[in-house]
Structure formats: structure tokens, C-alpha cells
Amino acid sequence: MNKKLKYFTYSQNSLNTYKSCPFKFKYKYIDNINWKYDDIGSREYYDSLKSGRDFHLLCERYFANIPIGKCEDKKFNKWVNKIKDLLPINEENIYLPEYEIRLNFAGRHIIAKVDLVIIEKNKISLWDWKTENQEITYKNALNRMQTVVYMFLAEEIIRKNFYANYKIEDISMNYYQPSLENKPVTINYNEKLHEEHKMKIFNLIKNIEDTDFNNEDNINKNSNHCKYCEFNKLCNSEAINYEILEEDIYGS
Ligand code: SF4
Fold this sequence. Notes:
The chain is built from eight helices and six strands, in the order E-H-H-H-H-E-E-E-H-H-E-E-H-H. By secondary structure, the protein is of the alpha/beta class. The chain has one domain (3-236): Lambda Exonuclease, Chain A (Alpha-Beta Complex), CATH 3.90.320.10. Strands 1, 2, 3, 4, 5 and 6 form a six-stranded mixed sheet that branches. The radius of gyration is 19 Å and the shape is globular. Residues 21, 23-24, 27, 221-223, 225-226, 229, 231-232, 235-236 line the site of iron/sulfur cluster. Iron/sulfur cluster is lined by residues 21, 23-24, 27, 221-223, 225-226, 229, 231-232, 235-236.
């Protein structure tokens, strides 16, 4: 195992990166290459990510019950109002915005930073706000690495440690896109899905640990992913198309 992985903290983002392309994982997490803001074309893309982060901050303030402040952006005002209508604050619930969950999984550290966790009677709901316009379908949500990691950690840490009287079926993962008129996409949890998630995470981490990152000839390159990858210029001397670049994460 590469020594950089000894104290590495895995996240849905890093696991997803390896799944997309092991070589990309090497660039990002072994070599620590940061490709952001290197040219004018990238600016708009990373500005849109910042805009997503700003919206997440407004939501965090709303659910933390602190003033959200004056919001100049009409789009954000509309989105926040939609979230208020969707999830009005109920004093009987517990709201945990930007909630960090950490797990030691057979000696490996895994982290998830959830936009919002709501604890209700017999209900543990994880929420994620998506500000992009591309619609998230149920199938896409079900297969997302984010769903896999977040639900696995919610069961292992939140339910088992703090709400052991709840059932695993009380956990749900919800994606909401305020830019669309769609309802949230909800994944309900169960034991079978939990076992599948556990194996997916374990197998991916095993593959990462078994990869010889010191020998570039031994690292797989996924050429199908290149057009969505910020390292396309580095690997293939091809211009990066920021219109179709793979989504980055807001925060962790
Ligand atoms: S450009 Fe292609 S091969 Fe290179 S890291 Fe990205 S996805 Fe992998």
C-alpha cells in the first residue's frame, strides 16, 4: 500500500474518483495536483461551484435557525423559499445541517459531510441539495457513490450509536434540486442495500490499496472518462471542456 494512504481519509469524492479512473485518483490524492483556476476557461466552472457553496451556506443558516442574511441573488431567494416550503421547521425535530459523520472501517477512515440530517420520530432523513440543472433520476441517485457512502455511515454511526431503537428502514437519502420543479428523489434503506454498500466500499478501498501508484504503467487509465476530466490536458494534451466537466463537490 502506498504510504500516502496510511492515514488517508476516504470520502465519496475520492472513492468516486478511483472508480472513474485510477490514474485520476493518483493525480488528485497521491500527487496532490490541484488543477483549479489555471486558465480563464476554468474560472466560470469553479465560480459555478462557489455559487453552489453559497447556496449551501444559506440552507445551513436556515436549518441552524440563524438569520440567513440579505440575499441579493433572486434565484437563491426563490430556491431558499422552495426549501422552506418543502421542509418547514418543526420544533419537535432535530436538524443537523452540514453534519459530519466519520467511521473507522476495519482501520480505514471514511468521512461524509451531509448537507442536512433530520431526526424525527422513527425517521432519519439525509438531505442533499443539488444546484445543477441536470435532472437526477431515482436510478442515478441509487447508484451514486454519495448514496452508498452516506447511507452506510448513517446506519453505522447515527442509527446504531444514537437511535438503536429505530430500524434501518427508517433511514432515507433524499436529493433535492431547487432549480427544477421536481419532487425530491428518495432512496429508502434496508439490510440488503447496506450489505451491498459495505461490499462496494470495502472492495473499492481494497483496490485502491492494492494499486501500485509508484509505477504508472500499472495504473489503469479510463479513457472513456477523459472528456469529463480536468486532467485531460495533462494526460492527452486535449483542451478541457468545462461545459461537461464532472461535478465537483461543495466542501469536503
Ligand atoms: S484524462 Fe483520462 S486517463 Fe487522464 S486522469 Fe483523466 S480520466 Fe484518467
